[in-house]
Specification:
The complex is a heterodimer of chains A (184) and B (568).
Chain A: H1 2-25, H2 32-40, H3 54-63, H4 75-86, E1 103-107, H5 117-121, E2 127-128, E3 136-137, E4 157-161
Antiparallel strand pairs in A: 1-4, 2-3
Chain B: E1 26-27, E2 34-37, E3 47-48, E4 55-56, E5 61-64, E6 73-74, E7 79-88, E8 96-104, H1 123-132, H2 145-148, E9 158-163, H3 172-195, E10 199-205, H4 209-221, E11 227-232, H5 241-249, E12 264-268, H6 269-281, E13 287-294, E14 300-305, H7 310-317, E15 325-328, E16 335-336, E17 350-354, H8 373-377, H9 384-392, H10 396-401, H11 412-416, H12 423-482, H13 490-493, H14 501-522, H15 533-558
Helix pairs in contact in B: 3-4, 3-6, 9-12
Classes of the chains: A mainly alpha (184), B alpha/beta (568).
Amino acid sequence: MIAALWVMVGISLLLGAVLGFSAIKFKVEGNPLVEKIDAVLPQTQCGQCGYPGCKPYAEAIAKGEANINKCPPGGEEGIRKLADLLGVEYVPFGEGAAPKAKAVAFIDEQTCIGCTLCLQACPVDAIVGAAKQMHTIIASECTGCELCIAPCPVDCISMQPIGEDITNWKWDYPTIPIVQVAAR
Amino acid sequence: MRPLFKFHGGVHPATHKAESTRTPIALAPIPTKLVIPLHQHVGNRAVPVVQVGERVLKGQIIGRPEGRLSSAVHASTSGTVSAIDMQLVAHHSGLPDLCVTLIPDGKDEWIAHSGVDYRQTEHTDLRHLLRQAGVVGLGGAVFPSDMKSYSHKHKIKTLVLNGAECEPYITCDDMLMRERAADILRGAEVLRELLYAEEVLIGIEDNKPEAIAAMQKAVLDDKHAQMEVIAVPTLYPGGGAKQLIRVLTGIEVAAGVRSTEMGVQCFNVATAYCVWRAITFGEPLLSRIVTVTGNVEHAQNYEVLLGTPVDELVALAGSRADTNKHIMGGPMMGVDLPSGSVGVTKATNCIIEASPKLFPPPPPALPCIRCTRCADVCPAELQPQELFWFSKAKDFGKAQEYHLFDCIECGACAYVCPSQIPLVQYYRFAKSEIWQRERDAQAADLARERHEYRLMRIEREKQEKAERLAQKEKAALAAKAASPAPAVNPEPAHASSAAGPDDTLQMRIDAAVARAKAQAATAQPKNVNALTPQQQAEIAEIEARRAKIREMAAHAGADDEPPKSNQG
């Protein structure tokens, strides 16, 4: 009887030690859900969701503070992916939050006065320039967040939609053309 | 007799090859203009190196290769560059791309060129020659040939020369082999040398007996010991590189593996011919054989200058009035040209004039009945019905799991489909969507990285600034301790002991302002200390004038008039 008790105590101590050890050894740093949500977000860092970047928005979603339909650059597909990931229902975009066509910022170099305000606004350092030097956008790194437009004192930044060319052209989804047949 | 192997599936569409093989290859005349696309190969687009209005000679480079994977583009004849702009090109999208438009002068004047003896030339130099000569794979993939003629990574045992030409209607390789077999084999010999290959297997489908005979004769005549011409069974798509390698060597090139890793490299016969011309005569790739067939009076093969507008080419063969579109390539894998104005490129092996009678519009697609006839004929041993299902449902992850990217888009599945489903269109749609997603994901990763770096940088700058300030403060305190009565500005100093922190700050600011003022008063402009007396006199005169104006302005201000010219 006593022996059995000791065996049970021994086993529980051993297992407890194993569990305690693994809790320290395999501790998960940060919230893995935040990383997963962040991976779905388009990383434009535009702040249209009301948070100062994609990561803070991901954190807010993970905490349940923010809805999943606040990211227009991610498109409807982004919402669907988030809904899948979090196991919640799809939510359509709210009023006025529809996704826009992709665009990159463009600085009219004739008008630019070199004030560096847009440099400070750019979340991905995609603007090259210095004080009283002309600024220009690195188009390949611009996320199209439009954050540089508001601070410009001379309104020399505009958004240029990314056109379709041979390199980024996509095949259409096959559709069957509807043919009008004369009624008998 | 060499044992041959089989690849999975395949179909037997009507070949329609006899029409265009009745007459020998004709030389197409120089057209009225040439529209030469700068992106005729796999890889980076060539960069234009000529100006509008410049006169160029035949064989002159007009687009230089950009980056590692690229190829040069040349002027196909002598003439004047009339435009470098976006023109319609032979592409599924029907979108324009950068082209050089050349108005020929009719003289066909060559640029100075000369060949080399490949046996006495370094292989690196040979590859460079191929790149500069714009030699790319002419079987349709237009992959730069210099990038394919390496063998240092993997030992190449077999060089497969592809003369199968499996797609219906196309006969350009057939005619080339009949007429120029010797030069093809010499080119193959150069490639064999470059690859250190032990044997050259020339695969030709058995529906081209004349070509097989001509090639066999050339092998015997020139005593090419390591070469063998092999007739392979006619079966579409037996001319696909992986399929032909399978048939000739029995080697199954696995998914995501290059054939070179299995010791085999494959070149088209026309590519071998161009390699020979480029190396031995220094002639860049300026023209190619194009089959003009379909709805024409006399179907024939032409040797056509690259850039020749398709309209002018088909007029030679007598395009009939009811032609409704031009197809570049074969009926199975060809591209519908957006216009007759597009120029012939290195990839143009055939132009089929299509008419509603010849190619009736496909009947509407019916639902998939899961008969799996597509799976029976798929040469890549895929499950086309599953791929169709996933592509249609836009379930791209699943489509990739079913090896969508092993699909060679040969169209055999759509050919046998009893429901006439445009299967290949679905696969192409899915592929381009997946590529788009990959591009988006890459852009997102880049943006994330840059944003995180920016946040880190801002944080670091803040810290550095704080440290700098702390150090300055410390130094100032130390200095104060060293000399208890600082004699910088004795006037406000008397209140320092009794004043609070705000007062000391104000006091310090006052002191700094006073210091700056004193400095400004004593400072001499540095740019006037080494001047001639004449210049100094001029400066003095200007200063005097300024003083006068200031005085006048002050006077005017006193007379209650708005100050005008006092802003300098």
